[in-house]
Here is the input.
Amino acid sequence: MKSFRYSAPDPLPPTDRAWPDATITTAPRWLSTDLRDGNQALARPMSPARKQAMFDLLVRMGFKEIEVGFPVASQSDHAFLRTLIDRELIPDDVRITVLVQARDELIRKTAESLEGAPRATIHMYSATSPFFRRMVYGMSRDECKDLAVHGTRLVMKYAERLLPGCDVAYQYSPEHFAETEPEFALEVCEAVMDLWQPDEHREIILNFPTTVERTMPNVFADRIEWLHRNLSRREHVCLSVHPHNDRGTGVATAELAVLAGAQRVEGCLFGNGERAGNVDLVTLGLNLFTHGIDPGLDFSDLVGIRRTVEQATGLPVHPRHPYGGSLVYTSFSGSHQDAIKKASDAMAAAAEAAETRVDRMPWRVPYLPLDPRDVGRTYETVVRITSQSGKGGLAYVLGQWRGLQPPRDLLVEFAGLVQTRADAEGGEISPGRILGMFQREYVRAPETPELPEPDDEPMTTVLYVDGGGFDSGPDRVDAVERVRRMLTERGFDLRAVHHTERAGRQSRMDTAVYAECHVGGRSFWGVGLECDIETAALSAVCSALVRAGSRVAATGGGSWNWSNEPSH
Here is the structure.
């Protein structure tokens, strides 16, 4: 690769930059360009119905500024704008924006297309970079500045003449700002403001795009901070940024620009747009949300948002897209699953101790920066099982879907069975299949279990009692003692009875008992799910013995005949 053909743009000279020490405490103003920049980037632009679906989505989410199109660029953009105005589909608290180049006939037609609109922003742009001035425009600096001023004068002229009942705001963008000499960009913006004369009742939006992202985000932040300090009439200027994502750093560029003084960010949902896309407003908004800052946008139905965007644009959202991807709240790794399971249990226990709901507790779960429930996702798909998963994922599935909390050694054994199945099939195993495997493998006692008669050598057994109304008090003690007597009378050496705490969750069955029976020098697990502890314990032991018998038969040792004597 011939890297000598490329070079990094010149940074600003060293300054006493303050943005590295700043923090974001409030959300910026948002403008969605999904219906303009995002639409222009599509191989098949949106139909009127898809545009309306996108507009309605943006309104529901809480966007107050929406760029609805480039009305002189295509008949479809013009027709959609007229539909919004003529059918009075623009809410009173929403301001639409339209884009136009700095040319007389285009500005006039744009103003005409807004007739009847209650409020609108006319967004005019002109390129200012040396590359454009020399190779596209063939203009000097002064001619380039005069173009921006002349275009502004035309916006004012046609707004006054053609839109007397419309609250018209003005936005100017020096296109290719990131490649323009900073002092020249400032000179052009000052000349535009000299004509517009912003004041407390007459704001101007100055929008600075990374039309093509070529620099690291810190270089763009330096430029924004320099403008923030040097623009006159700063209190009447809304300093806006429009980052693209050519280097894959659009989100960082926007965040650092806000630290540097930007008050407004333009972008698209899920980062749609030309080339590598515009900055992703979903990621930006939820980055704020996960830092405890209200983004001012409603992401509570992120699945529905993603579905609408995919249907409107025809572009799928990547499964690993931050926050919105189908797999970002899913863990296949065993260590991740284990951490999620343990932290979720700890949060549930803390909520129960504080007598509050889990969703009112501070979110502290490893590998999940956001509670999936806050964006309309569920825990049922957080942990998914493949050959890469371990006991933590199985514990999560069994706990969330059935309220079970099996002992660690049982989970380790079951994980081996599941991994063997996953390796053989080469894919994911659903929670439903996992539950079925667990049921068939361990919960296999007859409906009326009977234990074998005492043998010469007692079978040692350990029981694990899981909930069922015996969490504390004399009832549990009495029940456990009855189980102990029952097993001892039938020749079992009951070594221990352990009790599993439920971490604040309600069980989905009355009692679960896990039995670990040692037969012929090996350990066999069984599970009983019953209404009372005695029956559950009996079922668990019988299940373990059934499994022991099948293993003996499978290894050529005959079958277990309930009297602990092999039959051949």
